[in-house]
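Priority: medium. Attachment 1 of 2:
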């Protein structure tokens, strides 16, 4: 079954109740309205994602490509037990705890969004990306061309308050003046609840494949610089 209003109703009510007892009593609804439709989307997208990068993990389970609903409150002032949103994550995972660029889809009562990028890229990775931009690296040229050719996704990420590269071209400055990198599309319930949601994501995610590869190349260069043995080759 596709995502539905029952998905959002459960997420909102569970966050409002903030009760493990209530969650345990309604776990069947969580599985039926949240986990099962998300797992189906992961299965539908596995071939598309692995065509972009054969190391992208596509596991149709919570803790795999589906986020956990329970929050880790150990280091947070907010002690709420549960999130109001869930998300799909399509990226590389390994034991190094490096945060890789990834494709995502986020579902909450506030709306639906999907795209590609970092939750928060490290400063050194961003520095490597800027070096690729300044050098007119082929990966940057391919990413810029792909982004400019589409009209689905917007360029997110915090921008420097004061320009750092005022003498560069407008095309490069779009990438150079960012403190973080992600590309997103915000949607309404018509997209979220559509039985064709998997097809929409399978159509749109490849538009950002060159952007993903640029982010991955920047990360790879950073890894090679800080390790005697590269974690992966590009």
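Attachment 2 of 2:
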């Amino acid at each position: 079954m596709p995502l539905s209003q029952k998905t959002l109703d459960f997420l909102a009510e569970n966050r409002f109740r903030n009760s493990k007892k209530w969650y345990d009593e309604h776990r069947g609804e969580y599985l039926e309205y949240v986990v099962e439709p998300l797992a189906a989307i992961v299965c539908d997208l596995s071939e598309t994602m692995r065509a972009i990068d054969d190391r992208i993990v596509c596991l149709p389970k919570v803790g795999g490509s589906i986020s956990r609903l329970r929050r880790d409150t150990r280091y947070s002032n907010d002690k709420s037990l549960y999130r109001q949103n869930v998300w799909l994550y399509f990226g590389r995972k390994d034991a190094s705890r490096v945060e890789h660029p990834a494709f995502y889809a986020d579902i909450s009562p506030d709306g639906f969004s999907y795209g590609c990028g970092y939750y928060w890229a490290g400063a050194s990775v961003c520095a490597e990306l800027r070096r690729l931009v300044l050098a007119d690296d082929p990966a940057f040229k391919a990413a810029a061309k792909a982004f400019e050719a589409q009209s689905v996704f917007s360029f997110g990420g915090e921008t420097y308050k004061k320009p750092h590269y005022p003498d560069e071209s407008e095309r490069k400055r779009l990438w150079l003046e960012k403190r973080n990198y992600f590309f997103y599309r915000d949607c309404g319930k018509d997209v979220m609840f559509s039985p064709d949601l998997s097809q929409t994501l399978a159509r749109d995610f490849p538009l950002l494949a060159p952007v993903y590869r640029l982010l991955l190349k920047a990360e790879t260069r950073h890894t090679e610089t800080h390790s005697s043995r590269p974690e992966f080759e590009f």
